[in-house]
Amino acid sequence: MFTGLVETLGKVVQIEPIDSGIQFTIQTEWENPDLKLGDSIAINGACMTVTKFSDLGNIFQFYASFKSLELTNLSRLGEGTLVNLERAMALGQRFGGHMVQGHVDGMAKVVSRKQIENEVEEFWVEVPEELRRFFVKKGSVTLDGISLTVVDVKDGNIQLILIPETMQKTNANTWKKDQRLNVEVDVLAKYIENYLAARS
Predict the structure, then answer these.
(1) Confidence (pLDDT) at 199
(2) What is the mean pLDDT of residues 41-66?
(3) What keywords are annotated for this sequence in UniProt (predicted)?
(4) In this structure, how many other beta carbons lie within 10 angstroms of the beta carbon of residue 67?
(5) Is residue 143 domain-shared with residue 75, that is, in the same domain?
(6) Residue 64 is part of which domain span?
(7) 1 within some domain
(8) Which residues contact 110 (CB under 8 A, 6 or more apart)?
(9) Do the beta carbons of residue 156 and residue 111 sit within 8 Å?
(10) Residues 8 and 31: beta-carbon distance below 8 Å
């Protein structure tokens, strides 16, 4: 389980195709390094498993299967690409953001981006048609592993307002028109839909 509060940025330093997928090597700098083999870690919001690490986890590897590559934007990563990183929640820590599973539901597309004031950025993002029923004004969404609030919903697009803190600490500063983002809808919305479907 994750919170959608990105801890740090990582840089893809090696991409190696292997049987049934790709092995990625990431270089980063954790504030409190404690990575272990087998740990779950969200890479742009997709839950992956640490398969190898060195330098206290500041260099680590993970494997993405062809299925994961098909469902997420991990297949679009190149050497030098910045990715959002979050380790799994620790028992007893403060719970910011919202409940994030790291199970990517699909890919959204950046429609527009503009600065509106004092480095505050407005984004409109198109979400997949099959997921649009899960979005409401002031609801939660995870994009590339970032917990965000939906400001408005219009014609299959969601409006987001990102503050300088978010722009500085995540890869949102690199987002551009037509870029694909991993999207995970609020799991509570899924439970509600499932409950109502069962009742009807």
Answers:
(1) 81
(2) 95
(3) Repeat, Riboflavin biosynthesis, Transferase
(4) 10
(5) no
(6) 8-87
(7) no
(8) 123, 124, 125, 126, 175, 176, 177, 178, 179, 181
(9) no
(10) yes
How many domains are contained in the chain?
A: 2
Element (H, E) at 199: helix 187-199
Q: What is the pLDDT of residue 95?
A: 67
What is the full DSSP assignment across 164-195?
A: HHHHHHSGGGG--TT-EEEEEE-HHHHHHHHH
Is 2 within a domain? no
pLDDT tens-digit series, residues 132-159: 999 999 999 999 999 999 999 999 999 9
**Close Cβ partners of 33 (under 8 Å, ≥ 6 residues apart):** 56, 57, 58
Structure tokens that stand for 48 in this block: 């992956």
- Over residues 123-137, the pLDDT tens digits come to 999 999 999 999 999
From residue 116, give the alpha-carbon distance in Å to each of 38, 40, 47, 90, 177: 42, 36, 33, 36, 16
